[in-house]
Amino acid sequence: MKKFIVVFKKDIVGSLQDSTVSALQAEGAIVGDRISLINAVLVEMTDSVAESLKQNSNIDYIEEDSEVKTC
After folding, report:
1. Hey, which residues does 41 pair with through a beta bridge?
2. Separation CA 62–CA 60 (nearest Å)
3. CA-angle at 4, arms to 29 and 60, nearest 5°
Protein backbone atom coordinates (compact mmCIF):
# COMPACT_ATOMS: atom_id res chain seq x y z
CA MET A 1 0.00 0.00 0.00
CA LYS A 2 1.09 3.56 -0.67
CA LYS A 3 0.27 6.85 1.01
CA PHE A 4 -1.84 9.35 -0.90
CA ILE A 5 -3.20 12.81 -0.24
CA VAL A 6 -6.89 12.82 -1.13
CA VAL A 7 -8.17 16.34 -1.73
CA PHE A 8 -11.89 16.95 -1.53
CA LYS A 9 -13.72 19.50 -3.64
CA LYS A 10 -14.02 22.82 -1.85
CA ASP A 11 -17.69 22.42 -0.92
CA ILE A 12 -17.30 18.85 0.42
CA VAL A 13 -17.14 19.08 4.22
CA GLY A 14 -18.48 17.34 7.30
CA SER A 15 -20.71 14.34 6.70
CA LEU A 16 -19.91 14.27 2.96
CA GLN A 17 -16.22 13.77 3.83
CA ASP A 18 -17.13 11.26 6.53
CA SER A 19 -19.11 9.09 4.09
CA THR A 20 -16.18 9.03 1.65
CA VAL A 21 -13.77 8.16 4.46
CA SER A 22 -16.06 5.33 5.60
CA ALA A 23 -16.19 3.95 2.05
CA LEU A 24 -12.38 4.04 1.87
CA GLN A 25 -12.08 2.16 5.15
CA ALA A 26 -14.54 -0.47 3.87
CA GLU A 27 -12.13 -1.00 0.94
CA GLY A 28 -9.27 -1.66 3.38
CA ALA A 29 -7.69 1.79 3.27
CA ILE A 30 -6.07 3.25 6.37
CA VAL A 31 -7.20 6.83 6.85
CA GLY A 32 -4.82 9.14 8.68
CA ASP A 33 -4.74 12.82 9.47
CA ARG A 34 -7.09 15.37 7.98
CA ILE A 35 -5.36 18.35 6.39
CA SER A 36 -7.87 21.15 6.85
CA LEU A 37 -5.72 23.77 5.13
CA ILE A 38 -6.29 22.09 1.76
CA ASN A 39 -9.52 20.16 2.60
CA ALA A 40 -7.77 16.80 2.37
CA VAL A 41 -7.04 13.57 4.18
CA LEU A 42 -3.97 11.34 4.21
CA VAL A 43 -4.84 7.79 3.14
CA GLU A 44 -2.79 4.61 2.88
CA MET A 45 -4.34 2.45 0.13
CA THR A 46 -3.61 0.27 -2.85
CA ASP A 47 -3.22 1.70 -6.33
CA SER A 48 -6.47 0.04 -7.39
CA VAL A 49 -8.46 1.73 -4.60
CA ALA A 50 -6.83 5.06 -5.52
CA GLU A 51 -7.82 4.56 -9.17
CA SER A 52 -11.43 3.80 -8.29
CA LEU A 53 -11.55 6.80 -5.95
CA LYS A 54 -10.80 9.10 -8.87
CA GLN A 55 -14.38 8.42 -10.05
CA ASN A 56 -15.83 9.77 -6.78
CA SER A 57 -17.62 13.07 -7.38
CA ASN A 58 -16.54 14.38 -3.94
CA ILE A 59 -12.84 14.22 -4.86
CA ASP A 60 -10.96 17.09 -6.51
CA TYR A 61 -7.70 15.16 -6.98
CA ILE A 62 -5.43 12.49 -5.52
CA GLU A 63 -1.66 12.54 -5.42
CA GLU A 64 0.89 10.16 -4.02
CA ASP A 65 2.41 11.48 -0.81
CA SER A 66 6.10 12.29 -1.00
CA GLU A 67 8.83 13.91 1.01
CA VAL A 68 9.58 17.51 0.16
CA LYS A 69 13.21 18.58 0.43
CA THR A 70 14.51 22.10 0.47
CA CYS A 71 17.97 23.28 -0.46
Report:
1. 6, 34
2. 7
3. 100
pLDDT category of residue 71 using cuts at 50, 70 and 90: confident
| Domain range 2-64, CATH class | alpha beta
Query: How many Cβ atoms are within 10 Å of 4's Cβ, its own excluded?
Result: 21
Mean pLDDT over the full length of the chain: 93
Strand, helix or coil for residue 51: helix
Domain spans of the chain, in order of start = 2-64
CA distances for 40 relative to 8, 16, 61, angstroms:
6, 12, 9
**Which one, of 51, 29, 53, 52, lies nearest residue 42 by Cα?**
29
pTM of the model: 0.88
Dihedral sign of CA atoms 44, 31, 20, 35 in order: negative
